[in-house]
Amino acid sequence: MDRLSIRRFSSRAEAERHYLDLVDSEAEAARYVSPAQEAVYQLKLAEAAQGSGPMVEAEATATDADVTTVCQRIKRARTRWEKRAGTIEEARIAAKADIRRSDTPADMHRALTRFRNAL
Length: 119
Description:
The protein has helices at 12-31, 35-50, 54-63, 67-101, 105-118.
């Protein structure tokens, strides 16, 4: 739950920097995948592109599916991730534009809230 607080900024520029930084931080958190997990995803995607490999075969055995089905799942998962990352980036860009156009810190906060809700 968000804590209610009043924050005073010494200038509009300071408020803008604060809210722009928050948008970037939250976009990064929404897209975050650990480096180790990203490495695994890349290996599986490479195997799926080739049509087979040790990770794909292990997943097929573990899920009682054929290798072709597992390869298709992996490719679909990557496509979903790319769309999700694109949606986050579009929302990030729009939120930052809204913040830059805002007249007051309260307007900037509302732009941040809309961004959070879009995630």
